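Before we proceed, please read the two lines closing this message. Let me know whether the structure tokens fit the sequence:

…
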Amino acid sequence: MTRRLAAATCGLATGLTARLVLPGHPTMGLPLTAVLSVVGAVVAGLLTDHLRFEQARYLIAGLGALAMLLAYALVVT
């Protein structure tokens, strides 16, 4: 449980940082950015648990958050 919470926190920080650096998509507000990044990080965290990538958990969680934001931006536009 704490691993998923840590992955969600990492994803939230990554998503909000990405939003500040690349404001890009005008229809994606801050709450949607937060939700998408947390979902992406938690899914990536579950993947690392399944594949046993213990050392790269937070890196993969951050990449999962960015991938979710990018996928949303590609689908909506």
Notes: The chain has a mean pLDDT of 79. Residues 2-76 form one domain. The helical segments are 2-21, 30-51, 57-76. The longest helix spans residues 30-51.
